Amino acid sequence: MAYRKTPAVQARLDAQRDAVLAAATELLAERGYAACSVAAVAERAGIATGSVYRSFPSKAELVAELFRTVVGREVEAVRAAAARDYGGDQHAQVATVIGVFAGRALGAPRLAYALLAEPVDPEVEAERLVFRSAFRDVIAAAITSGVEAGRLPCQDPELTAALLVGGIGEALVGPLADGRAPDDLIPALITFSLRALGSATAEETSPTRLAPTGATP
Length: 217
Description:
Layout: H1 7-31, H2 38-45, H3 49-55, H4 59-82, H5 90-107, H6 109-116, H7 122-148, H8 157-178, H9 185-196
């Protein structure tokens, strides 16, 4: 008969797994992916190295789950921003989504750099692509609504959104690596994005007004 964990044993294992992920998140935010060795995570969590391996068989699996956890928070933040009531104004919707995304990234630059650009193992790179796709889909949905309502010119929403995500990510890499950014970076990203949508009101929309920085991760 296969051994079946009791609820108490499973609860302890789940708590230990959560502690490992919390320790890894701290290290990622402080020093990036390279600092998340199993030994370092175990030391930060206050457990033996072998205990980490009971939850995650390898560093790659640990960091992949770490990325999924942290990225999940970022995706939820931009989805929540997109879900606000904009009265059908897709320009304001896209501007707010980008403002929240960029504001959160710049609020935690070391963590955001790890999520967006730091060299990683293939398993983690796959999670990064999922992150970019999820962010693209949020913007694409807003563009689709705008095109269908006649508020935006006819275009391929997924292509436009992918171009925006790629351009915004590239624009953020340098400031994130340096740990500082120009004060006008987020308004500039919003202005660029509104122009890319083909909006006739891009010049009239105030990037500063539409660019909430959001909470840091």
